[in-house]
Amino acid sequence: MAGSKQCPKCSSSMTEGYVIDRTHSGVTVGCWVEGAPQGSIWMGLKLAGKPNFEIVSWRCGRCGFLEHYATGGPNRYEAAQRKAVRVAMIVAAAVAALVAAVTGAIISGS
Predict the structure, then answer these.
(1) In the structure, what pLDDT confidence band is assigned to residue 33 with cuts at 50, 70 and 90?
(2) Are 77 and 21 in contact (CB under 8 A)?
(3) 10 Å Cβ neighbour count for 14?
(4) Which of 20, 33, 41, 73 is deepest in the core (most CB within 10 A)?
(5) How far is CA 89 from CA 59, 85, 96, 102, in A?
């Protein structure tokens, strides 16, 4: 949403920004997902097949009122998030294999 906006509460000017979402793998832009949230043991929430849209936010400089909009397109950061999770899983598996190998070597060497 380009341009400038006027606050619906106090008529001051508003500044465009975004809402962050802190995750285990970093920080990303918050997203809007249709429907009620469904819990997932592995990922926190089930999102497979659900379209999600980045949240664009406007903040009033005078009264602090926030106005949020779901953008017209899909989340640009979703693919990067999935890649970061895959990399983290590969690193964790490699570390676990290394620990198992070292532990096995220590036990067999004793």
Answers:
(1) confident
(2) no
(3) 21
(4) 33
(5) 37, 6, 10, 20
- Is the distance from CB of 28 to CB of 81 less than 8 angstroms? yes
Amino acid at 35: G
pLDDT over 80 (residue 43): no
State the chain's mean pLDDT as an integer: 83
Q: Which residue has the higher pLDDT, 72 or 89?
A: 89
Domain span at residue 32 reads 5-109
Q: What sign for the dihedral angle of Cα 77, 43, 46, 48?
A: positive
**83/7 Cα distance (integer angstroms):** 38
Task: Report CA-CA distances (Å) from 94 to 23, 45, 64, 71.
Answer: 22, 26, 47, 38
| Residue 43: C-alpha distances to residues 53, 62, 93 (Å) | 18, 38, 17
Domain count, the chain: 1
